Each structure stands twice: as structure tokens, then as C-alpha cells.
Backbone:
């Protein structure tokens, strides 16, 4: 039985490698970092999509790291004991909401709000940074990053809360007995004790953000050019694949498989790292690390 | 202001040090308290910021989705844009068949793998465990590509190709959940059965698996919940169509595809269907998740 599982995994990896080979043999290895995607001219550069993937994930993490950590601390140590189980369960359930639902909500509800209010506001306040040039589209890098943030937040919070909650009681009480304030206990005792697990949770969330397909494809605007503004439409590796898969054939199809291969390698690297981190601390960890995995 | 005990001698270095620490701590107490208040306040604000969008999604889907829930919605297949009376019955059938096939194949396979992993601690087991862990997190679109290459290329778009991809996504989740549940069974149960002269296979079947059942059921239901919500792999494998299709060897529609395809349509009725389907999918997933917890709790209580 284990042999079947291992064989399936091997088949999965090998078939993607083999099917993307034609792209590598006709285009050389450099096509991955070329910046033009124009199937009509036989150009299949992946750079705009690799950048799009990295940028949306970066936006998501910039929002999710502080907010996720603050939320996890609040859930593990600040909320009253009576509401804690209910809130924690709610967070874990939200981690199970399908990503396509987040995508639908982002496209129909958030995009107009971003176009009318959020983007004009950000442009007027932060326009000098040069990050917010160009028209307010609603859809684009920024909205995709925000949707990813909302999507990965429950995963991140559930895992961080688990590791924050298992910090030994004696250490917390010891710090309090020495006269530490509530925040000093949290910052000097609770968070350092859970550091590796929190980092693992963040890395896991990053893996999710990198590989997310449909939610991003719905709200990113799907443009095959390198975005020069955080508001501009763009595309990620995953959204490139779903959007072009239907009509692709020959070298283009092989190039899409190649995009899949790049995504797979990134995904394996990030997840391998995350698993190693989560395991090293929370070996006996809570059900949530299984539940949201 | 330091509070010192009356009898300390100023020449004792330890007491002198204690007094200095106390005075520093007391002098900084006000500042530390303010910092603490601010930082804890920021955590509360972040909690509020996190709750707003998450509650927003759920509330919005319920408000927008409920009006779509008519009897036609649950009993009629999709109609073309503009023709009233259409529903998502065909997509419900597609999702149910794909989910059922994927579950039926992966549960026995995954649980046997989990049992193996729980019983062995060697290097091979560690490697398999790590592989399963990494597989739970690989981008689902790449698994869709695998389904396309392995099945669709050879047999065409079909519900089975979708079930294959969804099964690959569910399998590592079931393996790890099964292993965790089986490992949680007290060693003493195992040893008692061994002492009675039972064979390992008998112990696994009659002692370990029944005892691990609450955990196994939770894991399986969570895996199913995860599989049913996956969209990207289905886009590359089942193709989707508007018609009623009971035969899983043919292209089929599914709920996530209805949401994805309708969401970017300019027609109000198609959008309405997308919200209805989103609500239905969310309810199914939440019922499976909550159900797994309740069931596990009930089974756990019966055992005592």
C-alpha cells in the first residue's frame, strides 16, 4: 500500500518533468527567466508570472504576519476562557472554506470597494512611493494579495495559536512572579518559546499563497506583462496555467507544464521547510496542525 | 521607590543588588505598564481586523446565496443564460459522484498506509511520512496537471479524471490523520492483546483500528471536506458542462466549477447561481468539519 502511494508520487513528479521537457529542449533553460509571454511569436518567458507569484505572496505575508501573530496571541492568551473554544473552533472552520468562495467574494464585493475607495485613498497617501501609479482597476496585484491574506489567515492563526498555547505554565507564572507585565510575559517568554512553530505556520501559509490558483485567477486581472504598479493587473504561475490551458497545444502546453514544474519545485521547497520547522517544535502538537494542513 | 526589609545590612552585596533591581523595576513600572497596555491593545485590534473579513465572507455568502436556494436550484440542471428554472442539480450530482469515488478509493489505501507508518519507525517510514507531509501542501494545480497528463491525455475529460486528482489531494491527508489517530492508541491495549496471544493482523483489525476510530473518522471527513472544495484540479480534468451527467467516464459539471465559471459572467442570474453554489459548498464543507468533531466527541464518550 505504501508502495502504491510512493509510486503515485513518483509518477506525479516524473510525468510533469517529462511533459515539460519539450519546452526546455526547444527553448533552452533561459526561457524560465525571459520576460515576454507571446505564444504567437513563440515566446514563453515565465518571469512576469514568477514575479507576480512572489509579489502577491509578499503582499499577503506583509499583512498576515503581524495580524496573524497578534490574533494568535489574543486567541491563546488574552480572550476570556469562556469564548476561547468557540473562537478557536471558528478560526479552524474558516480554514476549510474553499478558496473559490474567497475568490468570488473578492471579485464581486472587494473589487468595487478597492476601485472606488481603497486604491484612490492609498494613491493619495502613499503615491510618493511610486508603488501606486496608474489607474484604479480594483482587480490587480493588491487585491490578489489581500485575498490571499484573508485566505491564509485562519491557517496561520490556528497553527500559531496551538504552539503559543503549549508554552509551559511554570515559565509564564515564573515571569509574572518576577513582576513582568502582561506584554513582557508574552514577548519575552511566550513568543520566543513558540518561535519555531510560529515560523513553520507562516511558511506553511506562504506555501498556500504561492500555489493558490482560482482565488487569484479571479481577482488578479490576468495580464502577461510585468506590473509596474501594485494596482496593476498581473498574473501568477498558477493563474497562467488555468487561464491558458484550454487553448494551449504543442510548445505552449509544454511551457505551461514547465510553469507547473517551477511551481511544484517552489511548493516542495517551501513546504519541506515548513514541515521540518513545525515538526521540530510541535511534535506532540494539537489537532489543528493536522486539521488545517 | 524600593521597598526593603528593615534588617538588611547595606554591606551585603546580594541584598544590595536585590535592592537595586527592585528600585529599577519599580521606577520603570509605570512605563512598562503603558507599553503593555498599548501592545496588548494592538493585539486586540489585530484580532478585530482578522475577524472583519472572515465574518464578512461568511455573512455575504449567506445573504447573497440564500435567495438562490429555490426548489428548482436543487432539482434542475443548469439552463442557458436567460432561461429561468435552472439549477445546479447536475453539479451536485457531479460533486457527489467525484467525492464518493475519490473517498471510496483513498480511504482504504490511505488508512493502510497510515497503519504501516504508525507501526514502523525506520528510515523508510520517516521518508514516506515526510513525503506525505509535503504532498499535503503542493500546489493543487500541479496535481490537476498530473491528472490531465495521466488520465485526460489517454481517456479524455471525465469525472473519473477529476476523482483521480481529488483522490491524490486527499490521500496524504488521510495517511497522516490515520497515522496520528493510530499512534494515539495506548500501547497497553496493544500489549494486552499480544499477551493474549493475538496475531499482529488481528490486533490491528480488532483492537487498534476500533480504538483509533474517532480520530480516523475526523481525519477522513476533513479530507473529504478539503477535496470537495478543490477547484483548480477539476478545471483541468472534468471539463464541466451544462447537462445532466450520471456517467463518471464522461465530462461532468461540479459545484466549484459553477462558482468559478459564473463569477466572471456579466449576467445577474448566473451570478446568483454562483452565490447559491458558494453557499451550498460552504455549508457542505462546514457540516463535514463540524460533523467530524461532533462524531469524534460522541464516539470518544461512548468508549468511556
Residues:
Amino acid at each position: 500500500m505504501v508502495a502504491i502511494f510512493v509510486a503515485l508520487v513518483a509518477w506525479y513528479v516524473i510525468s510533469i518533468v517529462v511533459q515539460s521537457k519539450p519546452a526546455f529542449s526547444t527553448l533552452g533553460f533561459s526561457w524560465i527567466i525571459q520576460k515576454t509571454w507571446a505564444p504567437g511569436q513563440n515566446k514563453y518567458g515565465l518571469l512576469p508570472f514568477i514575479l507576480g507569484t512572489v509579489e502577491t505572496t509578499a503582499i499577503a505575508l506583509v499583512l498576515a504576519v503581524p495580524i496573524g501573530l497578534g490574533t494568535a496571541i489574543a486567541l491563546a492568551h488574552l480572550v476570556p476562557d469562556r469564548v476561547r473554544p468557540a473562537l478557536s473552533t471558528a478560526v479552524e472552520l474558516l480554514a476549510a472554506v474553499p478558496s473559490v468562495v474567497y475568490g468570488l467574494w473578492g471579485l464581486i464585493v472587494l473589487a468595487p470597494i478597492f476601485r472606488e475607495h481603497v486604491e484612490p485613498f492609498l494613491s493619495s497617501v502613499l503615491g510618493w512611493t511610486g508603488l501606486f501609479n496608474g489607474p484604479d482597476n480594483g482587480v490587480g496585484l493588491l487585491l490578489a494579495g489581500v485575498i490571499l491574506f484573508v485566505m491564509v489567515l485562519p491557517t496561520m492563526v490556528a497553527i500559531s495559536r496551538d504552539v503559543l498555547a503549549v508554552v509551559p505554565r511554570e515559565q509564564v507564572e515564573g515571569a509574572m512572579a518576577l513582576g513582568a507585565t502582561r506584554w513582557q510575559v508574552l514577548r519575552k517568554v511566550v513568543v520566543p518559546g513558540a518561535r519555531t512553530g510560529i515560523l513553520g505556520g507562516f511558511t506553511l501559509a506562504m506555501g498556500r499563497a504561492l500555489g493558490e490558483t482560482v482565488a487569484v485567477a479571479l481577482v488578479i486581472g490576468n495580464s502577461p506583462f510585468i506590473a509596474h504598479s501594485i494596482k496593476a493587473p498581473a498574473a501568477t504561475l498558477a493563474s497562467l496555467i488555468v487561464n491558458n490551458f484550454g487553448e494551449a497545444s504543442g510548445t505552449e502546453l509544454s511551457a505551461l507544464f514547465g510553469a507547473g514544474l517551477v511551481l511544484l519545485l517552489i511548493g516542495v521547497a517551501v513546504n519541506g521547510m515548513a514541515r521540518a520547522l513545525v515538526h521540530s517544535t510541535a511534535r506532540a502538537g494539537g489537532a489543528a496542525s493536522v486539521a488545517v494542513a | 521607590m524600593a521597598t526593603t526589609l528593615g534588617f538588611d545590612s547595606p554591606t551585603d552585596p546580594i541584598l544590595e543588588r536585590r535592592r537595586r533591581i527592585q528600585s529599577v523595576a519599580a521606577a520603570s513600572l509605570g512605563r512598562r505598564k503603558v507599553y503593555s497596555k498599548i501592545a496588548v491593545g494592538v493585539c486586540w485590534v489585530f484580532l478585530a481586523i482578522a475577524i472583519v473579513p472572515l465574518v464578512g465572507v461568511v455573512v455575504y455568502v449567506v445573504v447573497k446565496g440564500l435567495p438562490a436556494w429555490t426548489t428548482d436550484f436543487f432539482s434542475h440542471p443548469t439552463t442557458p443564460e436567460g432561461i429561468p428554472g435552472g439549477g445546479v442539480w447536475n453539479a451536485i450530482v457531479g460533486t457527489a459522484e467525484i467525492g464518493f469515488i475519490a473517498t471510496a478509493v483513498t480511504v482504504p489505501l490511505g488508512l493502510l498506509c497510515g497503519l504501516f507508518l504508525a507501526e514502523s519507525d525506520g528510515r523508510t517510514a520517516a521518508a514516506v511520512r515526510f513525503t506525505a507531509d509535503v504532498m499535503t501542501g503542493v500546489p493543487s494545480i500541479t496535481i490537476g496537471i498530473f491528472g490531465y497528463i495521466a488520465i485526460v491525455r489517454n481517456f479524455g475529460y471525465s469525472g473519473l479524471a477529476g476523482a483521480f486528482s481529488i483522490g491524490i489531494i486527499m490521500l496524504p491527508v488521510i495517511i497522516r490523520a490515520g497515522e496520528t489517530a493510530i499512534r494515539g492508541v495506548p500501547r497497553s491495549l496493544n500489549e494486552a492483546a499480544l499477551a493474549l496471544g493475538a496475531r499482529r493482523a488481528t490486533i490491528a483489525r480488532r483492537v487498534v483500528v476500533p480504538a483509533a476510530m474517532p480520530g480516523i473518522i475526523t481525519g477522513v471527513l476533513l479530507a473529504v471536506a478539503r477535496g470537495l472544495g478543490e477547484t483548480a484540479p477539476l478545471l483541468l480534468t472534468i471539463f464541466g458542462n451544462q447537462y445532466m451527467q450520471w456517467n463518471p467516464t464522461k465530462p461532468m459539471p461540479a459545484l466549484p466549477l459553477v462558482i468559478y465559471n459564473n463569477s466572471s459572467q456579466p449576467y445577474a442570474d448566473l451570478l446568483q447561481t454562483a452565490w447559491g453554489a458558494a453557499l451550498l459548498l460552504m455549508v457542505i464543507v462546514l457540516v463535514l468539519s463540524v460533523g467530524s468533531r461532533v462524531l469524534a466527541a460522541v464516539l470518544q464518550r461512548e468508549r468511556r
Notes: Residues 89-303 of chain B form a domain with the MetI-like fold fold (CATH 1.10.3720.10). Residues 35 and 41 of chain B are 10 Å apart (CA to CA). Chain B has a mean pLDDT of 86.
